[in-house]
């Protein structure tokens, strides 16, 4: 029986995990022939996969070179015997490359989603080794492709650039949006972001820039959606700056459509991004956006619908937020045309077709 398995690093519900499940659900294969394995432990991704009747299991690696985790991965791959194994992000890519000699009949595809600018040389070597075992490597953006060619030395002809996309269902029957009073009453503009609370997301830069923006717009509010290891540090910074009355933490957001329509501006402050799905979603909901001038952000957002700032630059982010809030023409253009721009240029159907064209020769032979 021809089958397809996705191997991911984490079961969190961030951009990569969300995209991978959307892709797996949309591929024209019977659900019983699809499966998901996760290097780390249980999480929302596995819950969502099971709701879609896709087999999903956590391998519970305690650390990267966990021999018991490696044994569980080998055992699961022997049990599933996938025709195609698609991996996402460094740990999944590396372990698939290391174990692939045990499963030579499985066609391996790697996916790189991040710039990962601080990747250690040992990680580069492991990724390079995995790429040699793979049929193909997919990169989520031109920016990621460029770094894979120059840093990992993966041949350009082996890399397929497949950007993320949004399905039509994203724009249909959205859940009720939370009211502004429910999010942060009495604030205008209401600024927000939704992301994993990780270092590369540069949330301290956003909090500090927002503090400066309050000097010129004291009625502003900021909502932060998401969770992650940097949450305690961000909460501490908010307290140190005495911003508790102006900033609200939303925690895990299952469906961004419940929050985005209530915002005036969306900000993505990351210092590195491969191709952020949440930026597609925000602009797709007609939100004017501010994003760092880096990586995949430049392949999604244009200055027609938002503002860029130099990464890690608090003053420049403050300037960009102020400029966008003062530019009613640009904000109106995003509200009126942002959805059509995203639907036209980044449909999920194009992404699904590109992946299916890679897999089909191996699943149909």
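-> sequence recovered:
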């Amino acid at each position: 029986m021809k089958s397809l398995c996705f191997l991911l690093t984490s079961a969190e519900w961030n951009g990569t995990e969300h995209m991978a499940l959307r892709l797996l659900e949309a591929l024209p294969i019977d659900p019983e022939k699809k499966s998901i394995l996760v290097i780390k432990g249980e999480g929302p991704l596995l819950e969502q996969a099971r709701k879609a009747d896709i087999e999903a299991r956590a391998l519970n690696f305690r650390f990267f070179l966990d021999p018991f985790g490696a044994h569980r991965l080998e055992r699961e791959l022997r049990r599933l015997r996938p025709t195609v194994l698609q991996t996402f992000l460094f740990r999944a890519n590396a372990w698939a490359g290391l174990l692939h000699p045990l499963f030579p009949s499985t066609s391996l595809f790697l996916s790189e989603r991040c710039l990962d600018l601080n990747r250690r040389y040992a990680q580069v070597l492991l990724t390079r080794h995995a790429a040699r075992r793979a049929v193909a490597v997919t990169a989520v953006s031109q920016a990621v492709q460029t770094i894979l060619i120059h840093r990992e030395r993966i041949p350009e002809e082996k890399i397929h650039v497949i950007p993320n996309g949004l399905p039509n269902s994203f724009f249909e029957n959205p859940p009720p949006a939370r009211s502004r009073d429910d999010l942060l009453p009495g604030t205008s503009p209401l600024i927000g972001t939704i992301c994993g609370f990780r270092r590369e997301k540069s949330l301290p830069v956003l909090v500090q820039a927002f503090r400066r923006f309050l000097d010129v717009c004291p009625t502003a509010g900021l909502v932060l959606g998401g969770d992650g290891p940097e949450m305690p540090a961000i909460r501490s910074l908010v307290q140190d700056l005495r911003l508790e009355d102006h900033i609200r933490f939303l925690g895990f957001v299952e469906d961004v459509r419940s929050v985005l329509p209530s915002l005036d501006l969306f900000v993505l402050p990351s210092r590195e991004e491969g191709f952020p799905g949440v930026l597609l979603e925000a602009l797709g909901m007609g939100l004017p956006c501010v994003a760092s001038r880096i990586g995949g952000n430049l392949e999604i957002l244009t200055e027609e619908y938002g503002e860029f700032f130099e990464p890690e630059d608090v003053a420049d982010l403050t300037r960009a937020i102020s400029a966008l809030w003062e530019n009613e023409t640009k904000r109106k253009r995003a509200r009126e045309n942002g959805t059509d721009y995203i639907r036209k240029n980044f449909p999920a159907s194009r992404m699904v077709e590109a992946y299916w064209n890679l897999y089909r020769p191996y699943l149909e032979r």
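The chain has two domains: 4-165+347-363, 170-345.
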